[in-house]
Amino acid sequence: MLDRIHVLYEELEQQRIMLSFKGELSPELITALLGLVERKLEALEEDVRLRKRLFNVVMECLQNLYHHNARIRTGASGPERTEEPQGVVMIGHHDRGYSVLTGNFMAGDQVERFRSHLDRINAMDDEGLRDLYKSILADGRFSEAGGGGLGMIDIARKSKSKLEYGFVPYDADNAFFSLNVNVGN
Length: 185
Prior knowledge:
Layout (H helix, E strand, L loop, with lengths): L1 H13 L1 E8 L3 H18 L3 H20 L4 E3 L6 E3 L3 E8 L2 E11 L3 H12 L3 H14 L10 H10 L4 E6 L4 E11 L1
Antiparallel strand pairs: 1-4, 2-3, 4-5, 5-7, 6-7
Helix pairs in contact: 2-3, 3-6, 5-6
C-alpha cells in the first residue's frame, strides 16, 4: 500500500496540482487553504455535487492534520526540543476526478489501533458506514481531539472510495502516516 502512495505522489506531481502545502497548520491557515480550494474548485469543476464532496473531504483531511498531528522530539546530537507539528497536503486533478494526499506524524503506539479503524472502514459498504457513523454519534464517546473516529468515516462516505494509507516508522516513538483519498466523477 505504501508503495502505491509513493507512486501517487509522483503521479500528482506530473498532473494538475490544485494545492500543495507542507508546514505548520493553524486554524487561520486551514481557513485560508479552504478558501483557496473553494475558489479553485469553482473555476475548475462544473459538477456542483462533486465540488461539494471534494470540499468536504479536503476540510476533513485538513482538520485531521491539525487535530491529530504529533509533536516530534529531536535532540540526538544536541539539546532536546519539540518541533511544532508539520503536515503535508496535496490536491491533484486528473481524468477520473481528484486525489487528496495528506501526511503527518503520529504516536507510534497508536498505529495498530488506527490501522484497525481504517481497515474496518474500508471493509464497509455505504450502508455500513452510515450505520457506524450514527452509532458513534449516538454513543457520545469522543476522543480528546473531539471525534470518535468520525472524520475518517466521513471522508470514506463523502469520497465514495476506499482509503489508501500507509505508516512509516520514524523513530522509537513516532510514525509518519500518509493518506490518499480519491474523489471521482
